[in-house]
Amino acid sequence: MGHTRPLTQVKYNVDGDLLMTVAKDKTVNLWYSHNGERIGTYEGHQGSVWSVDCNKTSTLIVTGAADNTARLWHAETGRMLHTWELPTAVKRVEFSRDDRHILMVTEERMGHKCGIYIFAIDISTPEQSNEPVVILRSSSAKFTAAAWGYLDKYIVASHENGSLTLFDWANEEVLRHAPAVHEGVITDLQMWKDGSYFITSSKDKTARLFETTTLDPIKMYKADTGINTAAMTPTQDLVILGGGQDSSEVTTTSSRQGKFESRFYHKVFEDEVGRVKGHFGPINTIAVAPDGKSFASGGEDGYVRVHHYDPDYFTFQYDY
Amino acid sequence: QDERRLHAADAELMSQRRRLISEWQTWREQVDAMLASETDEALQSGYKLPIVADDQEFVVD
């Protein structure tokens, strides 16, 4: 199943029965995750859609795009409920854990500084405020991603220069800044389900785990290619990395040499335990189903692949 | 001798893995305790997570 242009993000809803996908083809698709049947397409963005998320009851979908807007959609009918106009492209959107706020990460461009805009959400009405509750600014390089920490107390942001910042967002305060935790652009940041730690991926060919409140490094996973995305499996001690050579660097048509596989690592031991093929170009985004029984990957090739694990996967015991 | 070296390397690897798992579990217990305490505090001060239920429909009109 797919889009007509490269995928930018794939994401499951909380129940795991729905999969949202966004791409550079300006569309947002909603699918049944178990069989890949498309439920609907949300049309309205005028540029690449960079990010998607939905609330816990799967009634509302938010998207952020290169048309300098974030949009709120009624999931069931596809009706566009609200449009927020931002100064620049919106690279990442995410509902808070209590669904009362949405964070939006904007790009730095044309004289506008990047920011993390936080808007309050009123679920009793489609009308939403256009005034952000808070705007967080970077004291370092551009933001590349951000995520809510546990109990919505914190927001962790990643930067283009490989650093991380921990915000007490409500008080607009920088609690910690961890410089150069990666040697390249941080391409993705995904929280563990309880928000206590998170994984980052980078063009420096590594993915790393960090504790939320301290930004202390916990684990590191090494690859032989730039990593665009990293996800953690909720039931097994595994992390999945996706990446591959950028199209500008690919000098061969071999998908093997392009390193376009999903790579599995043991979360605690840090060693690579397996790979899954399926894409003909770099993997841009990976999400793991909340029940841990499948994962989805979105590639530069325009395809979304949903991988269901074999029964062996659930019974496999690491030897120690 | 090769077999003995292999056994020794294997034993060392197992020992290292047990140590890593033990360290991870200890760290996780500390984090879980901290989360439990902070969650209690947050709930007492009014923080609420959304209730995920099928009957909670968002009304468009």
UniProtKB/TrEMBL annotation, chain A:
<protein>
    <recommendedName>
        <fullName>Eukaryotic translation initiation factor 3 subunit I</fullName>
    </recommendedName>
</protein>
<keyword id="KW-0853">WD repeat</keyword>
<dbReference type="InterPro" id="IPR015943">
    <property type="entry name" value="WD40/YVTN_repeat-like_dom_sf"/>
</dbReference>
<dbReference type="InterPro" id="IPR027525">
    <property type="entry name" value="eIF3i"/>
</dbReference>
<dbReference type="GO" id="GO:0071541">
    <property type="term" value="C:eukaryotic translation initiation factor 3 complex, eIF3m"/>
</dbReference>
<dbReference type="Pfam" id="PF24805">
    <property type="entry name" value="EIF3I"/>
</dbReference>
<comment type="similarity">
    <text>Belongs to the eIF-3 subunit I family.</text>
</comment>
<dbReference type="GO" id="GO:0016282">
    <property type="term" value="C:eukaryotic 43S preinitiation complex"/>
</dbReference>
<dbReference type="InterPro" id="IPR036322">
    <property type="entry name" value="WD40_repeat_dom_sf"/>
</dbReference>
<keyword id="KW-0963">Cytoplasm</keyword>
<feature type="repeat" description="WD">
    <location>
        <begin position="1"/>
        <end position="41"/>
    </location>
</feature>
<comment type="similarity">
    <text>Belongs to the WD repeat STRAP family.</text>
</comment>
<comment type="function">
    <text>Component of the eukaryotic translation initiation factor 3 (eIF-3) complex, which is involved in protein synthesis of a specialized repertoire of mRNAs and, together with other initiation factors, stimulates binding of mRNA and methionyl-tRNAi to the 40S ribosome. The eIF-3 complex specifically targets and initiates translation of a subset of mRNAs involved in cell proliferation.</text>
</comment>
<dbReference type="GO" id="GO:0003723">
    <property type="term" value="F:RNA binding"/>
</dbReference>
<comment type="subunit">
    <text>Component of the eukaryotic translation initiation factor 3 (eIF-3) complex.</text>
</comment>
<dbReference type="GO" id="GO:0003743">
    <property type="term" value="F:translation initiation factor activity"/>
</dbReference>
<keyword id="KW-0396">Initiation factor</keyword>
<dbReference type="GO" id="GO:0033290">
    <property type="term" value="C:eukaryotic 48S preinitiation complex"/>
</dbReference>
<feature type="repeat" description="WD">
    <location>
        <begin position="42"/>
        <end position="83"/>
    </location>
</feature>
<dbReference type="InterPro" id="IPR001680">
    <property type="entry name" value="WD40_rpt"/>
</dbReference>
<dbReference type="GO" id="GO:0001732">
    <property type="term" value="P:formation of cytoplasmic translation initiation complex"/>
</dbReference>
<keyword id="KW-0677">Repeat</keyword>
<feature type="repeat" description="WD">
    <location>
        <begin position="276"/>
        <end position="306"/>
    </location>
</feature>
<keyword id="KW-0648">Protein biosynthesis</keyword>
